[in-house]
Design brief:
This protein is an alpha+beta fold and 372 residues long. It contains nine helices and ten strands. It is elongated, with a radius of gyration of 36 Å. Mean pLDDT is 82; it is low at 1-5 and 359-372.
Length: 372
């Protein structure tokens, strides 16, 4: 065969074997392009423009201080009158304008300061081990000092002082607003007592129709309020009283009801009543499962066992739902024996002092802590 027709030896077709660790040649890496040339700003080149930018920053901080004061003045000078929506609108308008000016003044002032007066030189921070040494700590102090020098925080006293004033006044509107949200009366007493009293009839929510024991069938659940609640107007605290006294009424088979001896008289023929307010954060416990006899809070899925005094079996709630002692009157209507024997709703620090020891016996100190 000719040279052109001769086959190439097999060994010439073998693929060379390379070390996998050397598959990437270091010389193929991209070269460091470096940083672009620094472009000085107008405030770097002209001192008069730097002074003008400084005055603008001071102006923003002063505007923030004015907004904080305006919010407090508006909240006090434009009070909300019950039933007058016009006062609500004006109060919200001026209060919102004041808080908006306070926040925007600090934000715009800080951004303008950083963009026009602080050092604009590009820097690169090399990655290093997170462990620090005495040398790295000293270097950190130098960096802070350098940052202070570049920002002019210590040198530009007018900007520094107005910034401190704006930040100091910024939380004051929130302090005034949140402080004024507290009730004028003792909050512990407000949560410890409801409208329920001996002889108060249980009525349907929201119609206010009294409920007879014969109307409550096994497996049914009723949302209940005191009958006297209908006599309170909306301007007289109707919603507040309803939120405290709301009750869920359920009837169980007698063989499924596991009652403690000290609470045996709190139910009537398998009918039990529990506060509708979850002991976690106060959401309405409004979902009832007929087969398992469980109450579910839709907010955070706390689950209460109705067959065992509404004890917690799942979820973040730590206490059982307070039980309302009930019975029937001469006409067969369901009535309350008395008010709840413990505060309803979420736990609070002074709660244990309001628990009635005569009707809620505490077996031990540990049980008392669990109830808190």
């Amino acid at each position: 065969m000719s040279a052109e027709g001769q086959s190439v030896p097999a060994q010439q077709h073998e693929v060379a074997v390379y070390d996998r660790g050397a598959a990437v040649v270091q010389s193929d890496a991209f070269e460091n392009p470096g940083l672009p040339p620094h472009r000085p700003r107008q405030t770097d080149l002209h001192p008069e423009k730097a002074r003008r930018a400084e005055r603008q920053v001071v102006g923003w901080f002063l505007l923030s201080m004015l907004g904080s004061v305006l919010a407090i003045v508006a909240y006090i000078a434009v009070p909300i009158e019950s039933g007058d929506m016009g006062t609500v609108r004006f109060n919200n308008l001026f209060l919102g304008l004041g808080i908006a000016l306070a926040l925007l003044g600090v934000g715009f002032g800080g951004m303008h300061w950083a963009r026009q007066l602080m050092s604009s030189h590009e820097v690169v921070e090399e990655r290093h081990l997170s462990r620090g040494s005495e040398k790295s700590r000293a270097r950190a102090v130098e960096i802070f000092q350098l940052g202070d020098e570049e920002s002019g925080f210590s040198r530009r006293s007018l900007i520094r002082n107005t910034l401190i004033g704006a930040v100091a006044l910024l939380p004051l509107p929130a302090v005034v607003l949140f402080r004024d949200l507290t009730p004028s009366t003792d909050p512990v007493a407000e949560l410890s007592y409801t409208m329920w009293k001996p002889g108060s009839r249980l009525a349907l929510d929201p119609s206010g129709t009294p409920i007879k024991a014969s109307d409550v069938t096994i497996g049914s659940a009723f949302h209940v309020i005191p009958e006297e609640l209908s006599e309170i107007g909306h301007n007289e605290g109707y919603l507040d009283q309803k939120a405290l006294a709301a009750v869920l009424l359920v009837r169980l088979p007698l063989d499924r009801l596991n009652e403690q001896p000290d609470r045996a008289g709190w139910s009537y023929d398998g009918i039990v009543a529990y506060s509708k307010i979850c002991t976690h954060v106060g959401c309405p416990v409004a979902l009832y499962e007929q087969q398992t006899h469980h109450l579910l809070c839709p907010c955070h899925q706390s689950t209460f066992d109705v067959t065992n005094h509404a004890k917690v079996i799942f979820g973040p709630a730590k206490r059982a739902l307070p039980q309302l002692p009930i019975t029937v009157d001469d006409e067969g209507y369901l009535v309350a024996q008395r008010d709840f024997t413990e505060p309803i709703g979420p736990s609070f620090a002074e709660r244990l002092g309001r628990v009635d020891p005569e009707h809620v016996p505490l077996s031990s100190a540990a049980d008392m802590e669990n109830r808190a």
